[in-house]
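pinned: reference chain
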Amino acid sequence: MEYEQGAENQPMDGNPSMRGPSESATHIARADCPHLSDPECEALQRLATVIGEAAVATMLRTLSPTE
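pinned: its structure tokens
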């Protein structure tokens, strides 16, 4: 498969999932983690910038509050 120079680094469309980590808007709502302290929720927000908001949302949905 051939690309134009630099095309591999460009989003294919306006889809947020195609954006790089620095381009995606990351926001984990405080309501998504009511059992966590403010610093813990802020850490999740920072983690979302690294691994992606979808991964953090999956963690919040699937892990128990003690995990």
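why pinned: Residues 25-67 form one domain. The chain is about 35% helix and 0% strand.
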